[in-house]
Amino acid sequence: MAVSVDQRKPPASRLPRWHRLVALKGASFTLPFFLGFVVFTVVPLVMALRESFYREQSSGLGFGEKTVEFVGLDNFIEGFGDGRFWASMLRVALFALVCIPAIQILSVLLALLLDSATQRVANVFRLPLLIPYMIPGIVATLIWVYVYSPDVGPLTPMFDVVGIDANFYSGEMIWVSIGNLMAWGAIGFNMLIIYASLRSVPREIYDSAYVDGASEWRVAWSIKIPMVRRTLVLTTVLAIIGTLQIFSDPVLFRSMTPETVTRDFTPIMAIYDWAFAQGEFNYAATLSIILALVVGSVSALFYRLTNKAPTS
Amino acid sequence: MQPARITLASAVAVTLSLLATACGGGAEGDQGDGPVVIEMWSWNEERTMQPIVDEFNATHDDIQIRLVKQVDITSAAANLRNAVASGEGVPCLVQSMTGVGEVPALTAEGLLIDVTDALQPYLDDGVFNEAALPGAQVGDRYYGVPTGFNPSFMMINRAVYDEYGIEVPTTWDELIAAGEELRPHGIYVMNLAGEDPSTLVNLVQQAGGSWYEIEGDAWRVDFLSEESRKAADIVQQLIDKNLVAHQTYLDRPALIEYFDSGQMVSLPTSTWQLTKYEIDFRNTIGDWQPMDLPQFSDAGEFVTPAHGGAEIVPDGCEHVEEAVEVSVWKATNEEAINATLDPETGAYAWPGAVPDPSPWVDSAVPERLFGERRGEARDVILRAVQAGRDPWVVGPNYTGVFAELQDQWANAVNGEITMVELLERMQDFTVEDLRSKNINVVGS
């Protein structure tokens, strides 16, 4: 092209300023978010970090004035060696290893089914599948807590009829019970995200595959799933973050079966117990920071390992 | 551009000022020459608390109570910690918090104020039951106003006992024997909830034991005392022989249905529960018999555990004397106790702090629960009050220790560890926890 640089350049004094102004205006829409983010995330995080370097110390019989001492990394050393905290982490990690893939696979299957159905059929099923997600988590847990109850719920007598002694609150079954509840709530949401992603894939690609003689299964496996890979990574990362921080479900289960769901059953429950039941805010802050590090690392690692560009 | 910029700036300013206001809190200053206003926190239902407040306010000019309803005990504890830490909005009275923290543990947290001087005149007047006092003490000082204890006794489903020709137990050993006879019929002799180690704690207290003791400037922790082992042995036998149900107290509908089914026949209980059973029981109403709490076979005298609670005066309260006056009035004044009448149940809140609660006993005994045996209840309850002993000393870290005990109790009830293992674990946990807080411990 023979267009000179000078010709392309607008009058130097006006356009960049105008650009900057537009950019600033656009950016200002994010201000409420950033305000909230700073006040409710950054500030508490900095405060928690500060608290985690201190410890309240007593003396004598423990009734006198307490002193707050700077203890350096002592709380972290204690936290990293806290067997029960890490046991809760391991418990949840194992649960996540089983639960998240199961939820993802089911969500993908449902999304694929919807995608291959006609638009009318898809519309009929889309909403009912999303209803569990619309129900607030606490309400959903309460519903299931009573459905599971061996005393007043319908499931135990139903299993009884076919000769199965099912106690959904027992130590062996509690994670199955919580997992089922999570799946019930999460599948609809994940399915919808994946389905939307599937709908945005150009249909011509499928058509050419069909012309080449690909089966429905082959199209799903070799085209559709790779095309929604980024979406799958996103929903999985969200699931990892959510699952490692699981709190309200086991807390409500604890109210029904406290001998199985102990106070430090999950990492957040342990942190909550330290802070609000025992008043040990410094140690609770330390464990929170450790948990944040773990969740961040696991999410980042997963993202890095999986988030490659689609191959086709 | 200009108006938009102004709007945005105003929005930011409003947001920031709202945040600043929210963080600032709203402490109320003294009201000059008017009456002293005592802010009182309670999570009891307002319908039961308001009449007491109204009665006090109507009969006192110099002091007035302002009732502040809290959602529940846990959030009240969190609010109290925040208020004391900030020094603003500190109430002058908070309902007994035994459920989440005993007086020594709350004192160790720096939440409470020494009220001994303000309380002394009332102690000298002998307005309190002696057994109600230790629950408010830390060493020989008072950090709360005693609210007393609920008498411990037992109620049994006599119809089931009679059906199988089983004698009413008077000792824990006899109760275990009764359980062994009932078990083949699919009946449990008692219930041990997985979340509630109070059965063990009460047995240790009944045996005269305590897990903490002050020795000079240090604590002696002893979970493995003879008394604790004696208590643990009873519980262990009940579990090992599969004589007890494990219904949780937290699922009340299921619990009541179970108690009312005739499949579980002995309930250690107290006055405050009776009217609830009266309302809820359908099938077994009238079948129950009140009886003395079973004793240890080698007990020298008839004893019931009677560890009491205390209404607390938080650190930062500016009117300690008046707060104590209000609290003592509530716990011991006849008009105050009369104002606790619950029209729904016809019962008064149990006056656990007074030496002689007999004027209010009859109201605590419901009409139909005990059927023909209703008349026995009065004596059973008064005997339990007279036999109440409180050997229980609580250490500064008991809040955490009790939480740990709950978890270990769950393990023991599930059969994963024995009761003696529970005691050993609790011994280690408690000593280690005290040492980590730089608190003196003697022995191990």
UniProtKB/TrEMBL annotation, chain A:
It is found in: Cell membrane. It comes from the Bacteria. Residues 89-302 form the ABC transmembrane type-1 domain. Its main location: membrane. Gene3D superfamilies: MetI-like. The chain crosses the membrane at residues 21-49, 92-115, 127-148, 174-198, 231-248, 283-303. It is a multi-pass membrane protein. Keywords: Cell membrane, Membrane, Transmembrane, Transmembrane helix, Transport. CDD domains: TM_PBP2. Belongs to the binding-protein-dependent transport system permease family. PANTHER family: BLL4140 PROTEIN, DIACETYLCHITOBIOSE UPTAKE SYSTEM PERMEASE PROTEIN DASB. This is Sugar ABC transporter permease. It comes from Streptomyces litchfieldiae.
From TrEMBL, chain B:
Keywords: Cell membrane, Lipoprotein, Membrane, Palmitate, Signal. It comes from the Bacteria. SUPFAM superfamilies: Periplasmic binding protein-like II. Residues 1-22 form the signal peptide. InterPro entries: Bact_solute-bd_prot1, SBP. PANTHER family: ARABINOSE-BINDING PROTEIN-RELATED (PTHR43649), POLYGALACTURONAN_RHAMNOGALACTURONAN-BINDING PROTEIN YTCQ (PTHR43649:SF33). This is Extracellular solute-binding protein. It comes from Streptomyces litchfieldiae.
